[in-house]
Specification:
Number of strands: 11
Largest sheet: 7 strands, mixed
Helix content: under 10%
Radius of gyration: 13 Å
Oligomer: single chain
Strand content: over 45%
Order of helices and strands: EEEEEEEEEEE
Length: about 120
């Protein structure tokens, strides 16, 4: 049974840092694209970053480049999102998700299995 469980969210001041984790089970992590998405109140869900199965490299949306780092630990079957220099506009529920077809894109509809999400609030 496929499971993705996010953790690590919380309240942080602007300029602060958080590290999100996504513990996975039920599939081989490096066989599939895995991504982080977020949804702010009243907004559509958007892709933040993903790691491609084909090359193991992370890719980022422009708004987080240079501030966020996505990584994975295959032994722990866990992916991480290190978020630095957080801004109020980063406030959202963050989700991890897998794309079984390895499309290598930020298209939400191409991601099939989702975690329950973790809340990140950036506020002073």
């Amino acid at each position: 049974q496929v499971q993705l469980v996010e953790s690590g969210g919380g309240l942080v001041q602007p300029g602060g840092s958080l590290r999100l984790s996504c513990a996975t089970s039920g599939f081989t992590l490096d066989y599939y694209d895995i991504g982080w998405f977020r949804q702010a109140p009243g907004k559509a869900r958007e892709g933040v970053s993903y790691i491609r199965a084909t090359d193991g490299n992370p890719y980022y949306v422009d708004s987080v480049k240079g501030r966020f780092t996505m990584s994975r630990d295959l032994g722990k079957k866990t992916v991480y999102l290190q978020m630095n220099n957080l801004k109020s506009e980063d406030t959202a529920v963050y989700y991890c998700a897998t794309d079984w077809a390895n499309n290598g894109r930020f298209v939400e509809s191409e991601y099939d299995s989702w975690g329950q999400g973790t809340q990140v609030t950036v506020s002073s």
